[in-house]
Write a structure and sequence with these properties.
Chain lengths: ~1000, ~90, ~180
């Protein structure tokens, strides 16, 4: 199809032709077109079906306020639903499809809803689909979703990248119309850092859509010249295709830049969009105004548009929407449409002005005091019916109608901190209220200043005020027409439907129904009728709806009030919010020093926080994880095993009060620990619950090294800083994390010392380096290292640390030099098995609900000194002699299975909460014992050792008879670790 | 949100971790105070609609604990102090 | 010193050098680092001056030979020196400050990247909230890049040094590369 509706002029590049398809049919357009302007140029007005009634719809606007022309762009992983054709920039090869219709846009089976409209009035969901309740999820909702809907989401992954970024400026200008351009120019010329953002791909705002002159040249040319000047300024950042989506606290603004939406595919490595976080002390909202329609019967047919949109398509995009056009207006601005269209050779059949005294245009049939009362044309406008001032009706054949009900300032962003817009009767619209976001000024049409001159002046003045400047550029000459409007919200006539909110199919009748049912507050009106919801957020319809409610209730519009706006200003793609944080890039990884060795061995890794830890290291022939884990445990207990424990938090604590400080933060005492020794420490929260545990070594008189659990490394450090700065500010204590500085390996097993003697330069015999010894040593001929004789596995064990860069080499060296001991490298699973065999607490027991007493460690809480949590750990509820105690659990039948999370029940007791005796916290298979073992918290467990109970799991159906035993399954006397 | 750090100037609240009421500085002495006093200290809070003094930790910054005076209704921040200075001024020592 | 062979934070024997568009990312394995924290009631400046250890004010970096330093927290600095001569940097600094300071070796807690480009501002605005274009040379700050706490030192509009957590060196480098490809 040729571009049958293209007329001369416009801001499109006719030297290039783009080919695109809509619903499979080929069309052409030009650079500078939107999808909507190109389709209109090709004579296509029907672009969608409405949400509820499936009414045929075309665009009513030429901007981001568009409620109707929602389409799906592209296909496959890049398919993008609910895109407004009015802002989708055309590119060569674009494929677009209509949505919410079946089987085709012209014939939509669900249009039956339109005939059944009596059943679909406001609130019908609430009334119709309530009973029976169980039907909602299974039956009603799926049907409603299918029938009433927007576009479809692709099932494929989005192949494009989305960036996030941060920008700083002294002045952010939101909207590049005459006010915004003038503001940016004022600030830019004096060297201030300015960001000028506009959602359009061409800056200029309404100047591109109108024929007004600025400074003696066409407004669009003036805008282009200003943009050229601004773009040469290094202190000015121009962000076109960028929507400022919200004003957040303390001068932070969000903005989405559509970097590649106008390209078929983003260039390699480039993002599709960027979500900017803009920091600025001052901002100017110069986002213009949005024209609103007038509600009359069947006012939703393709070809009926906002009058300003008709002008924009004609002036900017060189498109005549129809051959025979009429204009329906209640204000002078609507008259411009007739003038502009006539100047471009479009046949303007009539101007219908609802006012008695409106200005007359020469050469056009002008009907004063008249109203459009109905329209005809199923898939597109064919005729309008007009009621004249004398009551006579007349049907006029037209294929396009421009409607102007006045302009609503775009106050949205000014409302983001809950500022309520105020009613300005002079322009019959809400303007920004007095208390917007601090630092945000408003200029131009957004402030209700609707003439070009007023926009230019207020833009300049806002910049002067924001930056505390005294003089700015001279203002170019421009029109300063007053606003002359006599509000008309809807035409009273007949029983047909007159649309207010075309996106949600809300009609005047629905507002009446809401009133009838007493949903008269604007907030109730919105929720009951869905007025102002979905992608357009009521940019064209809200004010009409509440004005009609005001009329129905006999209140004024200010009394009725308005809903306010929240971010985002226009819809934001989920991808832009996610940024790069998706898939494997969801979060950064932390790799241990042994990672490369482990990968070479084919180790299986487990995510622990951000860490990737070795879970087990399979050997050839091992097909099941238990084979590997059992082997690692048995080999360690038989000879020697090595485990990378670098992930444990390490905190260097120095200062003359370091020991006293540790006494305060640990439940047990550390100031008495001799230099060269380490001790297990138990850290409580102030409420008496166990926070963390680990060993802390005294490396010097005023120097300790604390270890924390992997999971709590960050929170413990934060807590220590709190104690140091907020509780005891005069203590001489310095803290720094050394978690990443040292590669640390646990070396455990009967041959641990023999293996270490192969690499350690010093004497580490039992006499020289006894149990719980700690100290600085050297390895492999002089490399600084640290050695701690501590054990988690219950074996003779050490932890040895070297600077991280040498960790990989140390591991390989230990394996090579100690080969005669057949050392095994074990992962977190084997580590877990051995610690449960020894009855050491870890994640399942350190659950944020348990006390030292629960863990059998009650004696560790010293009452001879003040420490965090000491006092409240003595509370009645936490010292209950019948409370939970840590116990060991084994199945009476060695083949019996245990599951962590199972609950303790007495034999014969029903599996109900009242009989609950506690639960299994951790369970492993002990290869040493040859059966499952577990730890658990059991009420009065310390007095139940030797008893038989049941471990019941209602999820898995397990009901296993168990014996309660000491949690120390293995070497309860601790002879091995002192060996 | 932006917090005007007394040493580092305006910093994005994203860099901070929030703890809660600044009264957490006033910890009783565990050797003299009993359970009741600690209970008051740990659990009892006013919940003002208006000015609130609260603890923020500059975890992704210089690790200073700050006392931020923030209006819970408007989010306006009227004062930011180093918690260590506040603690000292409230008589805390070792 | 020892027979053990060092591995870089990226798991290699040699420091990485990557060029993406106009941006060069050079891993530095030749920097020794330690923290210097003043003990309570001690003024470190006299000892620092005597030993030639720069301890600049908040958010500042000061270069010198062999020591350079930057502020990290109240009464705490990170001090750099060449690894070849100062692998035992903590020992050197302990000798200089004695009981007046707490010194902790930090060399291997971090991966160090030197970034260079004609203008690094377009890259940095995709990575962190530091106003890289707005701050002066010698600005040093902690910031978050790719969810990771990093120290950033601006040497000039086209040069900066980044300290990132060593265990996440690969993730950090990946973020730098992706941002460089995207922005430059």
């Amino acid at each position: 199809m040729s571009q049958s509706h293209r007329i001369p002029g416009g801001q499109i590049d006719r030297t290039k032709t783009f080919r695109f398809t809509f619903d499979g049919l080929p069309y052409t357009g030009h650079p500078g077109d939107t999808l909507a302007s190109a389709l209109l140029a090709n004579g296509v007005r029907l672009m969608g079906r409405s949400f509820k009634y499936h009414r045929p719809r075309g665009p009513i606007s030429a901007g981001s306020e568009e409620p109707n022309a929602l389409v799906e762009l592209r296909s496959g992983g890049r398919q993008e639903p609910n895109t407004r054709a009015t802002v989708a920039e055309l590119f060569d090869g674009l494929t677009a499809n209509s949505q919410n219709r079946w089987p085709s846009l012209r014939f939509d089976a669900m249009a039956i809803n339109d005939r059944l409209n009596a059943f679909f009035a406001a609130g019908f969901y609430y009334k119709t689909f309530m009973w029976p309740k169980s039907f909602w999820e299974k039956l009603y909702e799926p049907i409603i979703r299918r029938a009433a809907g927007l576009g479809s989401v692709t099932r494929e992954e989005d192949p494009d990248a989305y960036d996030k970024g941060f920008l700083h400026c002294e002045l952010l200008v939101i909207g590049a119309g005459p006010a915004g351009l003038m503001a940016a120019l004022t600030a830019g010329r004096v060297g201030r850092r300015v960001i000028l953002a506009d959602e359009d791909f061409r800056m200029g705002g309404r100047l591109n859509a109108e024929t007004v002159a600025v400074g003696g040249v066409p407004g669009a040319d003036w805008a282009a010249a200003v943009v050229t000047e601004l773009s040469a300024m290094p202190n000015v950042r121009l962000l076109s295709r960028t929507t400022v989506i919200g004003a957040f606290d303390h001068g932070i603004y969000g903005a989405v830049e559509r970097v590649s939406d106008h390209l078929p595919v983003p260039p390699a490595g480039k993002p599709r969009q960027i979500l900017w976080r803009i920091y600025t002390r001052r901002a100017i909202l110069s986002g213009g105004a949005t024209e609103r329609p007038i509600a009359f019967e069947n006012n939703d047919r393709p070809g009926i548009m906002l009058a300003g949109a008709l002008r924009a398509y004609a002036n900017r995009w060189a498109v005549k929407v129809g051959e025979r056009v009429a204009v329906f207006t209640n204000n002078d601005d609507g008259l411009r449409t007739a003038t502009d269209l006539q100047a471009r050779g479009v046949d303007v059949v009539a101007v219908i002005d609802s006012r008695e005294g409106g200005e007359m245009l020469s050469g056009v049939r002008h009907l004063r005091g008249a109203q459009v009362i109905d329209t005809a044309g199923r898939l597109g406008l064919k005729a309008i019916t007009v009621r004249q001032a004398n009551g006579a009706t007349e049907t006029i054949a037209v294929d396009a109608l421009g409607v102007s009900g006045g302009w609503n300032p775009n106050v949205n962003i000014h409302s983001h901190h809950r500022s309520r817009p105020v009613w300005d009767a002079g322009i019959a619209a809400f303007i920004p209220g007095p208390e917007g976001p601090p630092g945000l000024l408003v200029a131009g049409a957004a402030a209700g200043l609707l003439s070009t001159h007023a926009a230019l002046r207020s833009g300049r003045d806002a910049a002067l005020a924001a930056l505390e400047l005294t003089s700015g550029p001279d203002l170019p000459e421009a029109e300063d027409a007053p606003v002359r409007i006599t509000p008309l919200w809807h035409v009273s006539h007949g029983k047909g439907r007159a649309w207010i909110d075309q996106q949600n199919d809300v009609t005047v009748k629905d507002v009446k129904l809401a009133k009838q049912e007493n949903f008269t507050s604007v907030e109730h009106l919105k929720r009951y009728t869905t007025l102002g919801m979905a992608t357009d957020q009521g940019k064209t319809g809200n004010v009409i709806g509440l004005a009609i409610m005001a009329e129905l209730t006999g209140r004024s519009i200010p009394e009725t009030g308005t809903t306010i706006y929240r971010p985002p200003y226009t819809p934001v793609a989920m991808g832009a919010l996610a940024g790069r944080s998706r898939g494997k890039e969801f979060k950064p990884y932390r790799l241990t020093p042994s990672h490369h060795w482990a990968r070479e061995q084919g180790a299986v890794f487990v995510e622990v926080g951000n860490w990737l830890r070795t879970q087990w290291v399979p050997k050839p022939g091992e097909t099941e994880w238990r084979q590997s884990v059992d082997r690692e445990v048995l080999a360690t207990r038989r000879s020697v095993g090595i485990c990378d424990v670098t992930t444990l938090g390490k905190i260097d604590i120095q200062g003359t009060d370091a020991g006293a400080f540790l006494d305060r933060v640990y439940a047990n005492t550390f100031s008495t620990l001799p230099v060269g020794k380490c001790r297990y420490g138990l850290m409580l929260r102030e409420d008496g619950i166990v926070f963390d545990d680990g060993t802390t070594a005294r490396m010097g008189e005023h120097e300790y090294v604390m270890t924390t659990t992997t999971a709590n490394a960050v929170t413990v450090f934060r807590h220590l800083e709190f104690c140091r700065q907020c509780l005891w500010p005069e203590m001489d204590v310095q803290l720094i994390s050394t978690t990443e500085a040292w590669a640390q390996f646990s070396v455990a097993g009967p041959n641990a010392r023999k293996l270490l003697e192969k690499v350690v330069d010093q004497d580490i015999s039992d006499a020289a380096f006894p149990y719980m010894g700690a100290g600085n040593i050297t390895v492999c001929g002089g490399l600084r290292a640290r050695l701690f004789r501590i054990s988690f596995s219950g074996e003779l064990a050490y932890e040895i640390a070297v600077p991280t860069r040498y960790g990989d080499a140390l591991l390989r060296e230990m394996l090579a030099r100690g080969a005669e001991f057949d050392p095994v490298v074990y992962g977190t699973e084997a580590l877990g098995v051995m610690r449960v065999e020894k009855g050491h607490v870890a994640g399942g027991e350190l659950n944020g609900q348990s006390t030292a007493l629960n863990m059998g460690l009650g004696k560790m809480v010293s009452r001879k000194k003040d420490s965090i949590g000491m006092v409240l750990s003595q509370r009645e509820g936490l010292t209950d002699p019948d409370g939970y105690r840590l116990v060991g659990v084994k199945p009476v039948d060695p083949n019996g299975k245990l599951t962590a999370g199972s609950h303790f029940l007495e034999k014969g007791a029903a599996a109900v909460a009242a009989n609950d005796g506690g639960w299994l916290t951790s369970k492993v298979y002990s290869p040493h014992l040859g059966h499952d073992i577990a730890l658990g918290y059991l009420k009065a467990g310390d007095r139940k050792i030797g008893q038989r109970m049941r471990a019941v799991n209602l999820l898995t159906g397990q009901d296993t008879e168990v014996e309660i035993v000491s949690p120390h399954f293995f070497d309860p006397e601790g002879e091995r670790l002192r060996g | 949100m932006i917090i005007h750090h007394p040493i580092l100037g305006p910093r994005d609240a994203q860099e901070f971790v929030y703890l809660g009421d600044a009264s957490l500085i006033d910890r009783p002495d565990g050797m003299t105070a009993g359970i009741e006093e600690f209970h008051e200290y740990l659990y009892q809070r006013t919940n003002p609609a208006g000015e609130h003094r609260e603890l923020w930790y500059h975890e992704q910054g210089d690790r200073s604990w700050l006392v931020v005076t923030r209006n819970t209704v408007t989010h306006e921040i009227t004062k930011v102090e180093l918690a260590r200075d506040v603690a000292r001024s409230r008589g805390r020592s070792k | 010193m020892a027979s053990l062979q060092a591995m870089t934070a990226l798991g290699a024997r040699e420091a990485a050098m990557v060029t993406v568009g106009s941006v060069t990312i050079a891993e530095r394995v030749d920097v020794a680092l330690a923290s210097v924290a003043a003990r309570r009631g001690h003024d470190l400046q006299p000892a620092a001056n005597a030993a030639g250890v720069p301890l600049p004010g908040p958010a500042r970096y000061q270069s010198g030979t062999p020591y350079s330093g930057f502020w990290v927290a109240p009464d705490m600095w990170f001090v750099e020196a060449p690894f070849a001569t100062h692998e035992l940097i903590a020992d050197h600094l302990k000798a200089a400050f004695g009981a007046a300071a707490s010194i902790t070796e930090q060399t291997d807690a971090w991966v160090v990247f030197d970034l260079a480009a004609p203008d690094l501002a377009p890259l940095m605005e995709r990575l962190c909230n530091v106003d890289f274009a707005g701050v002066s040379d010698g600005h040093a700050t902690r910031t978050v890049i790719e969810h990771l706490g990093c120290y950033l030192v601006r040497q000039s509009r086209g040069n900066l040094r980044l300290y990132g957590p060593r265990s996440s060196a690969q993730s950090l480098l990946h973020a730098l590369e992706a941002a460089a490809l995207s922005a430059c």
